[in-house]
Amino acid sequence: MAGKSGRTINNVPESSVKRMILSWEGILVLVLIGVNIFCAFFSDVYNVANLLRQMPYYLAEMFLMIIMAFILVMGEIDISVGATVCLCATVSCIVCNTGAPFIVVILATLVTGTLCGALNALILTIFTELPPMIVTLATQIIFRGIAEIVLGSGGSISASNTQGFKILSTKINLGFGKVPIILFLVLIIGIIFAVILGKSTFGRRVYAVGTNRLAAHYSGIHVQKIRFIIYTMMGTAAAICALFYVSSSYGANTTTGNGYEMDAIAMAVFGGISSTGGKGNLAGGILSAFAIVCLRVGLGQKNVHAQVVLLIVGALLVAAVALPNIIGSLRRAVKKS
Amino acid sequence: MKQKSTLKKLLGSREFLLLVIVIAMFLIVSAINPAFFSFKAISDMMKNNAVTMVMALGMLCVMLVGGIDISCMSALALAAMSIGMLFKYGGLTSTILAFLIATAIGTACGFVVGLIISRADVPPIIATMGFMYIWRALGYLVSFGGEWAGANVLGTFPNFGTGSLLGLNNLVWVIIIAYVIFFIFMKWFRLGRKIYAVGSNPEAAQVSGINVRNIKLLVYTIMGVLSGLSGALYVATYASAQPNMNETTGAMDIIAACVIGGVSMSGGRGTVIGVLLGSFIMAMIPKALPLLHIDALWQNTIKGVLILVVVVVNAVLQRVADRNALSRREM
C-alpha cells in the first residue's frame, strides 16, 4: 500500500532469526542456557531431578513477579508485597491451627491478601497524586507490623495440621523426575497472564496507561479502574505465594517474605520490563525468573553463600539496565561524529 | 503583588505544622510520664537515632532531585564492616583514621551508584536495588562470610560513642554539626540551590546551564559520604559490627523520616528543618510507646499508620490549597 509520500507502509513486522536472537527475550534464552551449562559444570549434583526438587522454594516468588510485571508496565511499583506474604502466611497458619478444613485456610489466606492489595489500591486510586512508592512503603510497615502484633513476642508460628499443605507440595512423576505442581501452576498462570498482558484489550490498556497516563485517560480508558484491579490482584498473588511458602516451610515468622518484593522486581526488570513503564513483556520476565532460579539452585548446591548469589543477581540487574543505555548513547555519539 | 508578611509565611509553612506536632507529642508524653522530659532522655534519643538522623540529610538531597536510594544501608554495612575487620585483623587503632576510612568507602559506594544513575540513565530505584544487594554481599565477603567485630576487638573506638564534649554526647555533636552544615549548604550555597533547581524542573535547569548529570552524581555521592560516616557512628554507638546490620529495616526508616518531614517524592520540595523534625517524630515513637504503656510490638504499625496519615493529610491540604488558588483567580 503506497502512502502519501510514496513510501510503502508495511504493517507486518519483519520476522527473522537474527531479529529473534537479538531481541531481549532471545538473549534471555541464551542466558538461561548459559546459566544451566555453568551450573552443570559448577556443581556435580546439578541435574533435572535435583533441580525439580529444589526449585519449589524459589518458584513461589514467581507468582509475585507475574503481577509485579503489570505494575511495572504501568510505570509504578509495589514494595508492600513481601509484608503481605508475611501477613498471609501468618493468617494461614493461624486458621490452619484452629482445625479448619484446608479449603477454609486457602480462602482465608486469599481474602487476607486481596484485602491488603485492595487497601493499597483504594488509597492509590482515591489520592491519585500520591506516589505508589510511599504509600506501599507505609502499608509495608503496617502489614508487617500487624503480623508482628498477631505473632506476639515469640515472633513465629508453625502450622500443626500439615495435611492440607502437603497437597500443595505434591509432585507428579513424569518419568524424568518428580515435577512439583507449583511448576505447572507457575507456567500455566504465567502463560495466561502473558497472553492477557500481550494480547488482550486489558493488557494493551495497561501499556497505554504506562506510556502516557493522560493520553490514556483522554482516550477513554478508566485509568483508576485498571490500577485498582492490578493492585488488588497483586495482593491475591502475594496470598498464593504465602500458601506455597507455608507448604514448604510449615510455619511463618516476622521475617517471612523479607525482600520478596525486591526479588520480584529484580526478576521482572532483568526480564526487560522497564520500571519507567510501557516496555517489556511477561515472556522475558518468566525466562529471567527461571534463569535466576536455576542460578540460585546451582550455586546453592555447592554451598555458595546466599549473599554471593544476591551479589550476582544485583550485578546482573544493574548491568541488564545499564548496558543497553550505554551502548545506545555510544552509538549515538558515533553517529554524530 | 503584595509580599506576605514573614510571620504569616512562617505560620503557614509545613515546618511550623510539624513543629506543633513535635511539641504536642512531646508535651502529651511528658504529661503522662515526666521521665521523658529531661535533657538526658532527649540526648539519649538523639544518640540512638544518630544513624537515621544523619542519613536522612543525604536522602533529602537524593529525593530533592526526584531520586531514591535504598542501597544506603548496605553501603553503611560495608563501611562499618570494613573498619570492624581492620580493627580486628588490620591493627587499626586510631579513631580518626577509622572515621576517614569508613567515610572514604561510603563515598566510593555513593560515587559508583551516582555514576550508574547519572551516566547510564538507570532508574534510581533499580540501580540502588542492585547495589543494595551488591554492597551487602561485599560486606559479608569482607567479614569472611559473617564474622562479627565485637567490643573486645574495637579497642578505644567505642569511647567515641560514650564520650562527651561540653556536656553533650559526641554523637549529638555530630548530628548538630551535620544539620548546621546542610542547613547553610542547602540554603545559601550555589550548589545547594542547584539541587533544588534540578529537582523542581530538570529541563529548565539544563537549559539554564546547570549540568544535571553532575548534580545527580553529586547527590548520590553525598548520600555515600553520609552512609560511610554513619557506618562509623553505628560501630561507635553499638560497639559492634556485624554484616547483617540494619538489613531488615533497610532504608525505609530514613525514607519515612524524610516523607514525614515533607520531602516530596517527585523532587524539588523539602527542607533541612523539615527533615530534622521528621526524624525527630520517627525517633520519638519507639521512645514514647513504652512510657505510654503500649506494647513495643505496636511500634511498626503505628509508624506505618503515621506515614500514611501524614501523606494523605498532605495530599488533602494540597488539594484544598489548589482549589482556593483557583477560586481566587476566577474572581
How would you explain this protein's 3D organization?
- The complex is a heterodimer of chains A (337) and B (331).
- By secondary structure, chain A is mainly α.
- Chain A has 15 helices and 4 strands.
- Chain A has a single domain, classed as ABC transporter involved in vitamin B12 uptake, BtuC (Orthogonal Bundle).
- The longest helix of chain A has 31 residues.
- The two termini of chain A are 36 Å apart.
- Chain B has 331 residues and is mainly alpha-helical.
- Chain B has one domain: ABC transporter involved in vitamin B12 uptake, BtuC.
- Helix content of chain B is 74%, strand content 1%.
- Chain B has a two-stranded antiparallel ribbon.
- The longest helix of chain B has 32 residues.
- Chain B is globular.
- The relative contact order of chain B is 0.18.
The CATH C-level class name of chain B: Mainly Alpha
Count of individual helical segments of chain B: 16
Main sheet overview of chain A: 2 strands, antiparallel
Distance between the termini of chain B: 16 Å
Strand content bin of chain B = under 5%
For CATH, the homologous superfamily of chain A is named as: ABC transporter involved in vitamin B12 uptake, BtuC
Distance between the termini of chain A: 36 Å
Portion in strands of chain A = under 5%
Tally of individual helices of chain A = 15
User: Can you summarize the main beta sheet of chain B?
Assistant: 2 strands, antiparallel
Oligomeric description of these chains: heterodimer
- Find the CATH topology of chain B: ABC transporter involved in vitamin B12 uptake, BtuC
Strand arrangement, major sheet of chain B: 1-2
Mean pLDDT of chain A: 84
Counting structural domains of chain B, the number is 1
Please name the two chains that share the biggest interface, counting residues whose Cβ lies under 8 Å from a Cβ on the partner chain. Answer: A-B, 48 and 48 residues
Classification by helices and strands of chain A? mainly alpha
